């Protein structure tokens, strides 16, 4: 499962995995794929340094990447406290009321939330980049918009290609103009931030729009057959995120969440602004329903919504409040029904890919 | 491009085309595909008979099918006038006001609307079936739900397989239980009535759910690469609808509509209830916007909405009122940029399919 891009990056398979968990990223890289560690959950750069050290000792020189978040809408020059002050009291009240309705306990004294808004601020992303450039990362990805020109230049000076996510052809063209090297076409069915155009249509549109830049297909991929589909659409690789959430190496905050993911069907996700203020696909829960409800105050724009709900999400996860418990995940959650090591997933993906290619050859009459 | 199903149906390619235009259906069949004529626009059965006679003389014994609409929600035992009477006056007023805002002229005296609600009524669908069974149609498809048991039995007695559209695995399982032979998995990106699950995820889910029944992938397919993707996902064929709208053989009511389709991008469609009362993907227009507007009365349930807007749609089409002019179409509209004969489209589809398979073989290292 080798494309020009995977060869260039030194991976055996054109199989890219985005994950917030170093153990997953390293296992994927060791299994012949290309692990991409998401940095958004790191508030402090020393935590990132610790985990990149760990990655170095657990990937044995095989390639991996780092994904940072530099938001399109900058919140530069303001402190987290100043951003906090922009949140209307009515919204805070709604969070308190909703948590109270489900008897969600307060966080213990001195214990903070896991997910922090700070990961979404450019200053934080820049301090993460300062760390990242000390390591031999082979790819730098940015989940929201093109990174600033100086970041792209700095990466290029170190020989690191830069990837950026796009939900439309126009979005992808802007990335190309900004000097991006690889576009990740993120379809409607993907977990996390998505646009409205499905992978089947988006992938070839983006391939055409940014030619000759390589494109990765993200969204709707959890099997080797889906990888074959992505590559048939012209992608130079598949970018998978959701599927790693139920691997043995994933460190989800809560067993209850793992069980929810294993039980969910393809129809159990929703594109909601509840998590960050921008539409992001996630498990549909009574929490996302509360933000759609006509009785609610509606969601706030990014980054306010993320800041508003950060502590609530930590409490929901810590106490495993089942009806509210969710996570970003794509529509392939319906096929995530067993917990397995990353290597077993990769083996199944490559076998499924080969099966699909053999089937297509039969249909095409190749070799007959 | 042959699968077990296309062989069984006697078609050269596993390429199914749904179209309301006999000239398109016949041209597709002659080009080696399998044309499926949509019957919903036929109010009177003698018009259908006339067009099936025409199909017979223009397909030269090659296979074609018929698609009828038997709504899940029956409106049996009531007349069209009685259904009309269920429409609130406020909704009629909103239609009148919206048309007036755009200076849409009245229909000329004695000229009716083209699209009729009657095509959505079971009694009408049954009279169409009485006609269809007089012809050697090779497939009977139903666009909404499973047809009644007696219709399936009658088709089977005549050796005609029955296909039904599904937007979810559960929906597909109900079809299988009802005795359906072929399931058309209609993804979110498709034109017309769609669910929320994209083809990339829906197709393999439906394949698993109804195994060993054959599944066709619908939604997001307008190139040979997309056909390869659909078949990689386990489908026994691709079901294309939108792409025929801009073929030379298509008989759209209006040139302005053709130009709008050729100019539209993938982001210019919307899933709206404005046309029928159920979510159907179509060109986004100021008409669909009017039905989303908070100032509007909202849409009515099927079949009332279709009845409410039928005459308005005819007037909009007749007078080519550009900002309001729309049609059901999928997200592939962004790649429909030239008007060509059906045969040229089919040639490009089969060439694109072969190209995609060759590319996958290179990636898989087959033959290397």
Order of helices and strands of chain A: HEHEHEHHHEHEHEEHEHEHEEHHH
Largest interface, by Cβ-Cβ below 8 angstroms: which chains and how many residues each?
A: A-B, 51 and 51 residues
Structural category of chain A: alpha/beta
CATH topology-level fold name of one domain in chain A? TIM Barrel
Q: What is the CATH superfamily classification of one domain in chain A?
A: Aldolase class I
Overall morphology of chain A: globular
State the total count of DSSP E strands of chain A.
11
In spatial order, strands of the major sheet of chain A run: 1-2-3-4-5-6-8-9
The CATH class label of one domain in chain A is: Alpha Beta
List the total number of helices of chain A.
Answer: 14
Keywords (chains A, B): Flavoprotein, FMN, Monooxygenase, Oxidoreductase
GO molecular function (chains A, B): monooxygenase activity
Protein name (chains A, B): Nitronate monooxygenase family protein
Commentary on this structure:
Two copies of one chain form a homodimer. The first copy, chain A, is of the alpha/beta class. Chain A contains 14 helices and eleven strands. In chain A, the strands form two sheets. Chain A has an eight-stranded parallel barrel, surrounded by six helices. In chain A, strands 7-11-10 form a three-stranded antiparallel β-sheet, covered by helices on one side. In chain A, helix 8 links the parallel strand 5 and strand 6. In chain A, helix 2 runs parallel beside helix 3 and helix 10 crosses helix 14. The radius of gyration of chain A is 20 Å and the shape is globular. The model of chain A has no long low-confidence stretch (mean pLDDT 93). At the A-B interface, helix 9, helix 10 and helix 14 of A face helix 9, helix 10 and helix 14 of B.
